[in-house]
Amino acid sequence: MKSLIWALLGIASISNSVSAQGKIDIYTEHFPPYQYQGNGGEIDGHATMMVRALMVRTNFDYQIYMLPWHRAKQQFEASPSALIYSIARTAKRERHYHWLMPLCDLKVGFYKRVDNEQWHTQFSLDSIKNYVVGVGVAQPSLQYLESHGFKKSRLVTLSSLNQAGGLLEKGRIDFLFGAQSFVEQMSEAMGTQGKWKLVLEVPELTARLYLAAHVDAPSKMLTRLASAATEINQLNTASACHSKMHFQ
């Protein structure tokens, strides 16, 4: 997959060297391994590479900004020509965005430190309501907890889930509620592999993350973005089919 994306970037950069309109601002959050700031300061990650491949293919000039999620959404919503990724496509959000391109799938669950003597308990959503839970602000996961009767006094909302790892280690929160891939990546970065355990997965929050455009985005911009996204999706599908045939 990564080699295909690099190929797309190379082809597009050769054929599309001049921007056709003003710069497009693209907003996202720190969410490894999908998007993160690399050692050189460049925003990297699998989702970022897909977004870059799309943008150079459209011949649009662009700039990616990595901000805390609630600020990223505020900046995006203030500009009809802006884009945002990786945003979960949900029924509540469906009509408020133009969903341009799927990037990755997301699984969400509750994590707990295994050195806590209660970690082996069979937890349920109702039983976890009695504990303190760390969750990202302005996220569907927070809305989910509130809609299922979690009291605000039991929720620690954070602008960055990176903070939640430290709070979990210090015992300031009992559970961390977040995306499986992100929590496991954060655990690896903190050296806590094996110390945190997924004790309850929430299938209702399983979602696909997208690159999305503003609901009032210019139609010409949307047409070009949608066309490029279709081309990339077709190439991804062809690559996946080739891989399956190769290993059969």
UniProtKB/TrEMBL annotation:
It comes from Pseudoalteromonas caenipelagi. Gene3D superfamilies: Periplasmic binding protein-like II. This is Transporter substrate-binding domain-containing protein. Keywords: Signal. SUPFAM superfamilies: Periplasmic binding protein-like II. The keyword Signal applies. Transmembrane segments: none annotated. Residues 1-20 form the signal peptide.
